[in-house]
Design a protein that fits this description.
The chain has 96 residues and is mainly α. It has a single domain, classed as 5' to 3' exonuclease, C-terminal subdomain (DNA polymerase, domain 1). Helix content is 56%, strand content 0%. The chain contains five helices and no strands. The relative contact order is 0.16. The model has no long low-confidence stretch (mean pLDDT 89). This is TfoX C-terminal domain-containing protein. It comes from Ignavibacterium album (strain DSM 19864 / JCM 16511 / NBRC 101810 / Mat9-16).
Length: 96
């Protein structure tokens, strides 16, 4: 069953003011936008947009995925966390 996504980031699980601001900077204004972009691409875009900053995977990548699933980032299954990190690592190695 597909989860119904809100049109608003405010109040979404794991999305505070700072993450919302970062998402808005890359053109993501709703959970539907995030789902379309994917959490991996959104995380990578946030990192690219801010090259002099470090964005912890747990507070950004996992939080973005958790927001789509309605779960706290730490409650994501270990296998899903591993897959998300692998996707990010694969993309990094493509550009190296």
């Amino acid at each position: 069953m597909k989860r119904q996504l809100s049109n608003n980031l405010k109040g979404a699980k794991n999305i505070g003011a700072t993450i919302e601001k970062r998402l808005n900077e890359i053109g993501v204004f709703s959970l539907a936008d995030l789902a379309q972009m994917t959490p991996v691409k959104a995380y990578q875009s946030i990192c690219k947009q801010n090259p002099n900053k470090t964005f912890p995977v747990c507070y950004y990548l996992y939080s973005l995925q958790g927001a789509l699933l309605g779960l706290h980032w730490d409650d994501l299954p270990t296998e899903l966390k591993t897959e998300l990190r692998n996707q990010v690592d694969r993309k990094r190695s493509t550009y190296a």
